Structure formats: structure tokens, C-alpha cells
Amino acid sequence: MWLSVLVLTVISWLMKASAPLVIGSKKLPPAVVRMTALTAPVLLAGLIVTDLGGPGWREVDWTELAGVGVAGGLCLTKVPMLVAVAGGIAVTALLRLSFQ
Amino acid sequence: MSLRTEKKTAFLDGMRLGIGPATAGFVLALSFGAEARARGWGFGLPILFSMFAFSGSAQFTLLSTLAGGSAVAAVTAAVLINARYLVMSLALNNSLQGGRLSRALKAQTLVDASFVVAHRNNGEYDVGRLIGASATQWLTWVSGTAIGVLVAPSPDLMHRLGLDVAFPAFFVILALDELRRSSRALVAAVLGAAIAAALLFVTAPGYALLGATTAALLGVLPEKGGEQE
After folding, report:
1. Would A73 be classed as within a structural domain?
2. Candidates A7, A19, A45; nearest CB to B89
3. B12 in reach of chain A (CB within 8 A)
């Protein structure tokens, strides 16, 4: 168990350090820079889908979707981020209390 | 403003922006700590794991797969989950300063939410902000793991309180901000979401997430109006 944790930790360090160690200060070609600029939005979209869907789409929970929707909606109305998320959590908790 | 002041401002800005994701991370870390204790990992190992690996998805993967299979298979699965850091490291590299070692050390602060809040409109990354956002998240990730190990809160109670909403809600809010940047970002995100959605039917979420990053290949296509370099 300890060895598995150690091996995973070291490999994770190396993956994060891969580009600085391999490429160093060399500048990337424009096409690669454009590609890397899209990494953040793509990663976020993937995180949202995989987190809400779960393995084989078996973890879809309408109360969670409602809470996430409320948090996103509140954010669009310029409510501070933490308040928006707290609102989403409260809605989900209330729905679960009422229907589950 | 001097360079030192600029860096300090960026770091503090990052710490502030990291509070939201750090709060969600704290909830997730509680679950990780509690689950690790339930699976007989003891007290020290989960906390050290969170301190040094600082990677929720890989830590959960190792925790769950180690229980049901060989150590090699478990480590391989967790490494594949973290393979997105290869792409993120590449994306960050142009924004890093200094020698190889200094750059490699700064790159250790790469985590999903920090990577997003450090993203600038010009496609580069604010490294001070990245480090600040990760510092906040690291504190709550490690403290959450420690509290989870010690208190072991019931997963049912956390579910009833709706705390599982925190993580995706923060990502949706960060995405709303990210997608305002350009129509290309919006198209890439929709494509990434579609790829992840399709892959989720046939593979584990970590691999679906890795597959979603291929949507960033859209960036290889030239932008309208020529190169913007």
C-alpha cells in the first residue's frame, strides 16, 4: 500500500513536470499554443459531465442536477460564487429531504 | 508596480479565487479520509498521500482499485487518470519563467481548478495566481483528509446535506466564466463534453475525462483572420 502511494506520487510529480523538464524554455509553435489555450474549457466540460454522470451514467441524480443548475443560475445573476454554491447545496438538501 | 508586488498581488488573488474550489475540495477530502480509514489505511498514510500527491481523482482511484485488484493495475489506473497533467503541463510551460528545475517545481502546483483560474484571456497562464489558488486548495485538501480520517463522517449524512453538489457546482461556475472568452472555447467545450458523455458509457470517468481533452485539438485549426501570435 505504501509503495503504491509512493510510486503514484512520484509519477504524478513527473507528469506535472514533464513539459518544463523536456521542453524547457523553448517556445511552442502557434498551433500548439492555440491548442493548449483550449485545454482549460475542455477539461472543465469533461469534469462536469463525468462528475454528474458517474461510471456508465449510473450516478445521475436529479436532485444534484437541480442544485447545480440553481448554483449556475445564481452565478449568472452576479451572486458571489460561494453564495451561489451554498444556494445549490441548500436546494438539493431540501429536495432530498422532501422526496427521498 | 514592481515585479515583486505584481507577483504578490497575483498570489493573493489566486488564494482568494481558490477559496471556492478549496471549499468543495474540503468536502471531497472528508470523504477520501473517511473512506481510507474504512478500508484500513490507518491515520498517517491518507494524510501523507494528500500532502504529497494532492490529486483527488488519482487518490480516489488508487483507494478503490487497490481494494479489488493488484497494486500494478491500481497504480496504472490512477496514473492514466492523471495523464491529463501531461497536457496541462504542456499548456502551462510557455508561461513559466526560470530554469528547468524552477519551472518543474512551479508546475507541481497544477491542479484542475487552479489551472482554470490562472487562465488568461490571451491563452497564457498567470503562474502567481496558479500557485496562490493551489495553496488554498492544498490547505483544505490536507486538513479535510485529516478530519475525514479522524471523524469519519457518514457518506449518507453528507449525501443528505447535498454536499456532493459543491464540486460540480464550482466547475459549472468556473465554466460559465471560461466560456465567455471566445466562441472557439465554447465549441471546444461542447465537443469535450460530448466526447466525455459518449465515453462514459463504455469506460471509467477518468478515461472519459482524458478523452475529452482531445477536443482541444480544435486549436490546431487556424483562427479566422490568421494567426494571433
Report:
1. yes
2. A19
3. no
Distance CA A17, CA A13 (A): 6
Percent of chain B with pLDDT over 70: 96
> Under a CB-based contact definition with an 8 Å cutoff, are residues B95 and B103 in contact?
no
Query: Alpha-carbon distance B93 to B147, whole Å?
Result: 35
- State how many domains chain B has: 1
Report the chain B residue with the minimal C-alpha distance to residue A41: B189
The torsion angles phi and psi of B203, rounded to 5 degrees, stand at -145, 175
- Residue A33: domain span: 24-99
For residue A4, is it within any domain?
Answer: no
B211 in any annotated domain: no
Exposed/middle/buried for residue B198 (C-beta within 10 Å: 0-12, 13-18, 19+)? middle
Which is higher by pLDDT, A35 or A98? Answer: A98
Beta bridge partners of residue B119, listed in sequence order: B125
- Would you say residue B120 lies in a domain? yes
Give the domain range for residue B127.
3-161
* A86 part of a folded domain: yes
- The per-residue pLDDT for range B105-138, each reduced to its tens digit, is 999 999 988 998 898 877 789 999 999 999 999 9
Residue A81 and residue B47: Cα distance in Å, rounded? 28
Q: How far is CA B181 from the centre of its chain?
A: 20
Q: Report the number of distinct structural domains present in chain A.
A: 1
| pLDDT per residue as tens digits for the range B12-66 | 999 999 998 898 889 889 888 988 988 889 999 999 999 999 988 889 888 877 7
B88 within domain boundaries? yes
A99: Cβ–Cβ under 8 A, 6 or more apart, which residues?
A: A63
Residues sharing a CB contact under 8 Å with residue B143, sequence separation 6 or more, in sequence order: B26, B29
B215 found inside a domain? no
**Residue in this structure with the C-alpha cell 486548495, named with its chain if needed:** B137
B87 near A CB under 8 A: yes
ipTM for the assembly: 0.86
What mean pLDDT is predicted for residues B84-102? 89
Chain A CB within 8 Å of residue B80 CB: no
In a domain, A51, yes or no: yes
